[in-house]
Structure formats: structure tokens, C-alpha cells
Amino acid sequence: MFDSVDRLIAEHRDLARQLSDPAVHADAGRARRVGRRYAELGQVVAAHEAWTAAVADRDDARELAAAPGEDGEAFAAELPALEAALDQAAERLRRVLIPRDPDDGRDVILEVKGGEGGEEAALFAGDLLRMYLRYAESRGWRTEVLSSTPSDLGGVKDAQVAVRGSGTDPSQGVYAALKYEGGVHRVQRVPVTESQGRIHTSAAGVLVLPEVDEPDEVPLDPNEVKVDVFRSSGPGGQSVNTTDSAVRLTHLPTGIVVSMQNEKSQIQNREAAMRVLRSRLLQRRREQQDAQDAAARHAQVRTMDRAERIRTYNFPENRVADHRTGYKAHNLDAVLDGDLSAVIASCTELDEQRRLAALGEEPV
């Protein structure tokens, strides 16, 4: 049943040897990738050891239960509990052997953009941005606002935020959690601009991009990137609106355009734009790979398609509902304050169930 375990255990031992090599740590990107894979396989090793021990306990009890007398009866009485423990250990091992998304351990660049609904959509986009910042804070993640365009009433027309994790365990990675947030988020509430108290529906789009670990992972030919500089159009301030500090990058082969103007320095804006451009190119590459593997794509709950409505936030009922998993709860205020754990857990659980179902009866 677990034919692939020996190969993974051998890989785990090899990674341990690599991590003890100073040459590996001289390359930060390689060390990060090796450490991430080592942590992932560490779960497999631990689950396999637990399963092996459970098999040994069950087999020993079976042998001793065959002995005549009270001792045999005592061990026979223990068998049901040992069989149940073995089943649990086998299920745990099976779950950790489910192929993970290779980007799970990555940091992310999260984009939020107001959709249909004008100023109300921008206010809702601002609510979502604060929700993600507070959720990141609760997880001990670091955040950096790369760009943000405010609206007249204090909302956010669009924003890009880098979110960085603090560990190497892919299952606890930033992308492992936030990848389910990509799509259209719909809000139902009475807008601040509504004078007659009518409930309106508006939306905001969220895009979650795995961030590139090292620049050479997604190489860029300078001849394929058009660079334009222009004057920032944000709120006034020293150097803002007076110098050509804003940067627009256009990747000519794909047509992807990234603009940055938050920083006063053209160099800083260019560096931030390059980070976003590489992440978008990495995501494009992943989408092309998924398109070639329909089974893998179908097994995933997440979507990066802004056109797909994934969740509704209903203020009058204090209700949040995820349309992919069927999750519903009347704690909208807590969710918008960053308590996303239960919502994301419902997506993770459904994703694992689908991946398990996709495995079927094939050897793991």
C-alpha cells in the first residue's frame, strides 16, 4: 500500500546530509528549498514510524492472544483498540503521502482590487485588505504593502501586499493557506453612501501569487521587459508628484504589465515591480502546467480566476458563506477581524478529500 515510502525516507536522509553541508547554506535559495522539502518529508518519516510501530503492536498482540489461559484472553481484549490505532496510523500516513502543491511552502504576493460597486467596492476591498493583514499578524507572518491606491472615502481601489512566513514546513506555509482566497469576494450590506438604508451587493477580486524564492528561478531577459517611468499620482508629499519615481514594467512576450509608485525612489519601485512580475510569470507557468494535467487541476479547490465568486459576506445577518465548501458561520465580524482559520480549514479539508479520492485504490 505504501510502496513509495522507502524512496521518500531515503530522500529525507539525503536531504539531511545536504543540510549539514556548509556549501548548501552558502546558497540561500538552495538552502531554503532543501529545508522546505526536508520539513515536508519529515512528516512522512514520522507517520511511517508511527504506522510501523502500530503494526508491530498489533502483530505482537495477535500472537500472544493465541496463547491459552488468562494471558491470551487479556491480549485478545486489547486487539480491537490496537486495530483501531493501526487504522488511524495508516490513514495519517496515507494523508501525508498525498502529493502536495509544490508552492505550498512559498511566501505570497496578495492582490486586492475593488470590483463592481464603485466607492462601496473600494471600501470592501479595504476591509478585505485589513482582514488579511490581521490574519497574517495572528499567524506570526510579516507583511509589506508594495502598492496601494486609496479611494476618496478611505477604501482601497487596489493593493499589493507581500506576505512572508516564518518557518520551513510547507503545510504551514503562507501559500498553503492563502491560495484558497483567490477569486471574487461578494459583500451584501448598506453602503455608507446609501441614504435610504437599502442593501447593496458589490464585489472585490483577490489574487494570490506564490512569490519567487530567487531571481534565477524565473529568469528575465532585459530585452523582453519594457521599462517606463512616470510621475506618481498618489497623495502629495515630498518628492511625490514632482519626480519620475513611478515605474511601469511590461513583459513583452506575455503582455503582463506591473506598475509601482508607492515608494519615493524609482529604484525601490522598480525592485517591487520586478518581484510582482516574477510572481505573475511563475503563476502563469504553473497554470500552463496545470492545463496539461487536468486531473491535478480538477483535484484543487483553489482558483486564481477572478471571475469565480468564492465567498459572500452578508452584514445584515453577520454571516460568511464559502460557496466552494458549503461553509457557513454567523461570525462575520470576527472573520473580518482576521479570524479566517475555520474558513480556510474547510477549504483545506475539502482539498485533501478530493486528493484522496483522486488517488483511489492506486498504490501510494
TrEMBL record:
Which residues does the UniProt record annotate as the domain Prokaryotic-type class I peptide chain release factors? 231-247
Query: Post-translational modification, briefly?
Result: Methylated by PrmC. Methylation increases the termination efficiency of RF1.
Q: Which locations, inside or outside the cell, does it occupy? A: Cytoplasm
Instruction: Tell me which GO cellular component terms the UniProt record holds.
Output: cytoplasm
Kindly indicate where the leader peptide sits in this chain: none
Q: Which InterPro entries match?
A: PCRF, Pep_chain_release_fac_I, Pep_chain_release_fac_I_sf, Prokaryotic/Mito_RF, RF-1
**Is Cytoplasm given among the entry's keywords?**
yes
The record, for SUPFAM superfamilies, names: Release factor
- Pfam families assigned to the protein according to its UniProt record, in alphabetical order: PCRF, RF-1
N5-methylglutamine is carried by which residues?
238
Q: Which UniProt keywords apply?
A: Cytoplasm, Methylation, Protein biosynthesis
Family of this protein:
Belongs to the prokaryotic/mitochondrial release factor family.
Q: What is this protein called?
A: Peptide chain release factor 1
Q: What is the source species?
A: Micrococcus flavus
